[in-house]
Amino acid sequence: MRSEFRSEGLIDGSESSLRRFLQTLSPVDQIGAQERAAMLGTRSIKTSSKKWAIDMAISMVDLTTLEGADTPGKVRALCSKAVRPDPRDLTVPHVGAVCVYNDMVGIARQHLDAIGGEDVPVAAVSTAFPSGRASRTVKIQDTRDAIALGASEIDMVIDRGAFLSGRLGEVFDEIVTIKDICGEPAHLKVILETGELVTLDNVRKASYLAMLAGADFIKTSTGKVTPAATAPVVMVMLEAVRDYFQLTGTRIGVKPAGGIRTTKDAIKQLVLVNETAGPEWLDPALFRIGASALLNDLLMQRMKMDNGRYSSANYVTVD
Amino acid sequence: MSNFEYAPAPESRSIAKIEKDYGLFINGKFQPPHSKKRFETINPATEEVLSKVSFADEVDVDKAVKAARSAYTKIWSKLSGKERAKYLFRIARLLQERAREFAVVESLDNGKPIRETRDVDIPLAAAHFFYHAGWADKLEHAGYGSQPKPHGVVGQVIPWNFPLLMLAWKVAPALATGNTVVLKPAETTPLTALLFAEICQQAELPAGVVNIITGDGRTGSALVKHPGIDKVAFTGSTEVGKLIAQSVASTGKSLTLELGGKGANIVFEDSPIDQAVEGIVNGIFFNQGHVCCAGSRLLLQENIHDEFLHKLQLRMSKIRVGDPLDKNTDLGAINSAAQLSKIRELSQSGETEGAQIWSAPCELPSKGFWFAPTVFTGVTQAHRIAREEIFGPVLSVLTFRTPHEAIEKANNTPFGLSAGVWTDKGSRILWASNQLKAGVIWANTFNKFDPASPFGGYKESGWGREGGRHGLAAYIKGAH
Amino acid sequence: MRLDVKKTYKLFIGGAFPRSESGRSYVVNDSKGKFLANPSQASRKDLRDAVVAAKSAHPHWSNATAYNRGQILYRIAEIMEGRTEQFVAEIMALEGVTSKAALAHVHEAIDTWVWYAGWSDKISSTAGSTNPIAGPYYNFTIPESLGVVGIVADQKSSLLGVVRSLAPVLAGGNTAVLITSEKRPLPGITLSECFATSDVPAGVVNILTGVTSELTPWLASHMEVDGLDLSGVDAKTETELRIAGTENLKRIHRFGPDKSPARILSFMEYKTVWHPIGI
Q1: Of B30, B108, B277, C80, which is least packed with CB atoms within 10 Å of its CB?
Q2: pLDDT in tens, B126-136
């Protein structure tokens, strides 16, 4: 295992020390976690707090297109939407980032810069997304390509096969390597693919592993597998970043992705953040939501808060 | 960094149609009290008067008991179990239909948050009627012989902490087994019982099968002493429970009691810490701590004390205290001025006796009865706050070194209602459950209730069980 | 004079009312020989589809809480009560009884259904146990649902016969494929309409009408069917079907008219669990 990583003195660089550290983590009771997450889902967010939450959620969206059929045209339309979600209302904030496959990064960056979206970062999915099943060399090249084309955020996937078969050192090494390539300018999100990890204990372990290896953000899912960002999973990840901050003084971000389609879903996520990790995380620098259809629902809810009427899909743009 | 302030999210009061005053529900009708006396019931969150209810004196008690006897002899004892079942199913359904209305009225009268009445009290009450409806037509399979018989007329006195739910726990099994009922709700929380009387009318329950008489301790005393009552069921303080036991000692009346507790919540080092913190919080702050089976003592393994307390306090500072009708409120009002004064007195004793107090910072409203969620550390068995039931949102933290020490401390109390065990180890859960002298043991959870799960205490926490097949025994002649 | 709108009697499979894939129907006459209806004549393929539906509905149904199952079953009784007149008319026509007798039949059917609904959340309290074995182990036994149960309903009692067999199967958390009485099938389909309008999930109950002797061998030999209630089968056929059912050791029973928790337990399996007790 590599020795240049952010360990904050918690582990010494060997796989056995990593394994031992992860074993000291407290277990997670699935039922208790589900009940707490469900209770937080009953919070009623209305009027002024709802308005605030909608705008915050919009600014946290990583507007995403990850289809085999993506074309330059599709990506440009997405970027326009990212910068000006509602062309008729310029008070709507721009989104947190645009998220695309790495061969589309250049097109996205160019278009964003051309339309006044210089401060909207481009995030690229990487390391043989979504499966993570490829050689180390390929994964490294994948990341280098994205950064060369202008990606300032890298969303990598962990090797779930290695994790589930106990090769924790390999998972760790890969993250350290990719973080190295990102360097200072690009921030690294590590996708755990929680649907494949299945248990909340695994989610907790994988979260810590990723943070120790250098993740700037831990992310739930690729969006290609269900279940994805369920409330208990996100809650356990928020507990992990909260506790990691207690241990080390460093705040790591969290990104749920997949299955968050409505304003109600998004607001539930914000409540989870608020009452688990704390209000410091209510910031696009520390919390993002990977989504595509969500943005239109946020816009329609925003319109309803303004004019009191249930809106229609005709009043938001399709891209 | 931003602050996510939740705007007020009040449940509408308009669904609650509370009358200006109520009579006594005797023989299927609301009627004025013999003394014509009425007393006020208030909203403890605001001190506003909600309604005036009748004071039942000995004459009224006698009337109610006679109505129950007549209904028993002439109608209810002659009805087959399957027809009794259908009345109970109707009651269950009506409660479900009017659920929101009952939840709002309960919150107003008791002071507890609407989220809890909506999600816990009312659904559980309906479930109790549903569950017991299903026993009424199959009592010969309950393990009490081929023809189990009821007592006849039962007198029931219930407390103010879960008014409708306590009514359901009493009335459902009594009716299912063929008894008729005279029930006295608590002095400070009569309203949902009176609404329940309306449900009995809507269900076309024969007159006199259920009678609801409001009043105070004198009414309850007259009821339990009445010679026309065959069986008494009481939930309330251990002190009053003992008095009732004394007064029925020579009468041959059957008696079941569900009294106080000082539950120990034991947290071992290998417990799922975040869920254990949740469980401790739930154990003592759910229902403002007005819970007989509350986990009011935290027995914490000494080697995780500081880490656990830190997480506990962080979690406690997220408890939202305030308007019970706000859907985001976690902790509501203390039920009465009298109860608030008891809580303050005991809390003061904790400080005086040298324990360290910490309360979650929160803004308490100026009107109404309020107490911030509080935890005392450095508590030992000798402190009053470790021995006496506070019945409020106050947690006492003690430590232990070994499993045996934990059990010893947990059992070292005249009470024996509940206990909690938090550990990742299955054998330890089973071992601890064997050792703990408590009628209800929650492992890796707390404050869970179900009509199918028998509930009741060892030692001075009472006699008998409620719920489940075991809970039927109380209402079957010769079975308890 | 007003002409009434006559009902079509189709099969009930997977929550829907398809006709037989074979396209066949058969004639059902009333007790006097007068034409009553042309219900679908189910084929082995319809039966196959019904078993698929029942199998896929089983995990969700058996994992629901017993309270939830009891609520759903009780709601079915509510809907049955509303259809009393339809049932009475069908029973009078098919069985040639008076309206008073038909009404008593319907009432008993509904009350029996309610009786079994209330068992759902009680059966494990009465049939389960903790067992005092001689050692430091916690040992408990619980009854669990079997799976898919095939039912051949009583041939004579057109509604009550169906209820007596079906209700205990569902109360135990199983899903069902039921073949109605051949000559008196109609109340079984009207009962299906109650299922379709209650909250019971699609596939939990499936009802087939048709020629009993054509369908029963397929039911008895189907390897995804875990239990059989042969109450509507004659003695000779019963032996053949029992033999066919041994291939996957189906749990096979026949019952009389009694109601009893034993009927629920006949289609449940006992599971016993051990765990050490120690610090």
Answers
A1: B30
A2: 999 999 999 99
With beta carbons less than 8 A apart as the criterion, state whether B266 and B420 touch: yes
Nearest to B107, CA basis, from B204, B207, B200, B15: B15
C105-127: b or e for each residue (b if 16 or more CB lie within 10 Å)?
Answer: bbebbbbbbbbbbbbbbbbbbbb
Q: Say if residue A1's pLDDT is above 60.
A: no
Q: Which of B11, B187, B258, B460 is catalytic?
A: B258
Q: If 0-12 CB within 10 Å is exposed, 13-18 middle and 19+ buried, where does residue B74 land?
A: exposed
Q: What's the maximum distance between 2 C-alpha atoms anywhere in chain B?
A: 72
Amino acid sitting at position A244: Y
Select the residue of A29, A44, A56 nearest B328 (Cβ to Cβ).
A44
Q: Distance between CA atoms of B79 and B91, rounded to whole angstroms?
A: 17
Neighbour tally for B47: CB within 10 Å: 12
**pLDDT given at position A317:** 87
Spot the catalytic one: A142, A219, A297, A319.
A219
In contact, A53 and A251? CB cutoff 8 Å: no
CA atoms within 13 A on the CB side of B34: 13
Q: Check: CB of residue B374 under 8 Å from CB of residue B344.
A: no
A219 annotated active-site = yes
> Any chain C CB within 8 A of the CB of B130?
yes
Are the Cβ atoms of C70 and B134 closer than 8 angstroms? yes
CB contacts under 8 A, A 249-308 vs B, are 270-271, 274-275, 279-280, 282-283
Residue B289 has pLDDT above 60, yes or no: yes
The structure tokens 């509940």 sit at B418
Q: Do B130 and C275 touch (CB under 8 A)?
A: no
Which strands sit side by side in the sheet containing A61-64, from one edge to the other? A253-255, A217-219, A187-191, A153-157, A122-126, A97-101, A61-64, A289-291
Q: Which of C57, C79, C47 is nearest to C209 (CA)?
A: C47
Query: CB of B272 within 8 Å of any CB in chain A?
Result: yes
pLDDT for A61-87, tens place per residue?
999 999 999 999 999 999 999 999 999
Distance CA A257, CA B204 (A): 54
Determine how many CB atoms are found less than 10 A away from the CB of residue B286: 21
- Interface check B328 vs A, CB under 8 A: yes
> Exposed, middle or buried by CB within 10 Å (0-12, 13-18, 19+), for A210?
buried
A162 closest CA partner among A3, A15, A7:
A15
Number of Cα atoms under 13 Å in the Cβ half of residue C80: 27
From CA B56, how far away is CA B53, in angstroms rounded? 9
SS3 B44: coil
Q: In whole angstroms, what is the distance from residue B379 CA to residue B394 CA?
A: 12
Rounded Cα distance between B273 and C134, Å, is: 35
Rounded Cα distance between C42 and B34, Å, is 70
* Paired tokens of A318: 């399709």
The pLDDT tens digits of the residues spanning C198-227 come to 999 999 999 999 999 999 999 999 999 999
3-state secondary structure at position A44: coil
Question: Is B200 among the catalytic positions?
Answer: no
**Local structure of residue B131 (DSSP, 8 states):** H
Q: Both tokens of residue C214?
A: 């054509």
Q: What is the 3-state secondary structure of C219-241? A: HHHCCCCCEEECCCCCHHHHHHH
In whole angstroms, give the CA distance from residue A278 to residue A301: 25
Neighbours of chain C (3+ CB pairs under 8 A): B
Instruction: Tell me whether residue A304 is one of the annotated catalytic residues.
Output: no
pLDDT at A7 over 70: no
Distance of CA B255 to the CA centre of its chain: 18
Tens-place pLDDT, residues B243-258: 999 999 999 999 999 9
Residues listed for chain B? 480
| Residue B287 DSSP class | G
Q: Indicate the pairing of strand A217-219 with strand A187-191.
A: parallel
